[in-house]
Amino acid sequence: MSDGDADRLVIAALEDRRAAAIIAADVDTLAAMTDADYVHVETSGRVRTKQDFLETLRSGPGRFERYDIRENVIQLYGDAAVVTGVFENAYRAADGQCTAKTARHIRVYVRRSGGWMNVSHQATALDTAARSGRTA
Fold this sequence. Notes:
Blueprint: H1 3-24, H2 27-33, E1 34-41, E2 47-49, H3 50-59, E3 63-77, E4 80-92, E5 98-112, E6 115-125, H4 128-131
Parallel strand pairs: 1-6
Antiparallel strand pairs: 1-2, 3-4, 4-5, 5-6
């Protein structure tokens, strides 16, 4: 197995841990894998810091019931990894309403002395036409 293959396996495992931690609202796991300089861009365009992201999961008005990675492509560039793909999630608000979403994502990981750290996430919501592969 090449170093690149081993790194891809590590990143894939981090992606699985990240998704499971989001469902469990496991802030400690997410904090350990998220860099201090993390930038999180939501599908709405809102930008959050690491602290904002973790606090929303810790004490937000609702919780994720589902967070499924449907596709992930991991590309390595030396000490950086770019993960692109598609996820689906379902979020239950405090009032009981559940919102489901499908989105494309890009996440960037950087190799630090302690291992791979997630430094950035951006998501773009997909509409029905985009999910089916149709174009206008």
